[in-house]
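Entry for the shared binder. Reason: the reviewer on the internal report wants the predicted structure included alongside the sequence.
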Amino acid sequence: MLYWHWIAIGFGLMAIEILVPSFFFLWLGAAALAVGLIMLAVPDLWWSYQWTLFALLGVGSFFISRMFFKTKRGGAASTLNKRAAQWIGETVVIETAIENGRGKATVGDSVWSVTGPDMPVGARAKVVGVEGTELHVEKV
């Protein structure tokens, strides 16, 4: 294949990324563009080396990007759309006494179901876990 074939494939894969946002085709497109640039420097490269280089660059760039973006995640983004998980570590006030392991607590501006050791109304508890929409609490 000639260098411009690889460049066309690269732009084609990047166009697919625009239509099907998966963050996967972007790296394959970048790998194809890189092979196209390498083909400009070494035009006599055998087709088997071209495809091997494309595969290595594609897989390598994908995993490197995953490692890079994985370290950038966290904080508020890790609990996005997991409203209950945002309360882990927070102190709450028991609204309905916890009896037989079940009760209710005021969390922020709403009342949530809680499980934990028996506690009276007004007691303070720390959220230590979540199961569905139910918070697990411990005495503070």
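Summary line for the report: The first strand starts at residue 91 and ends at 99.
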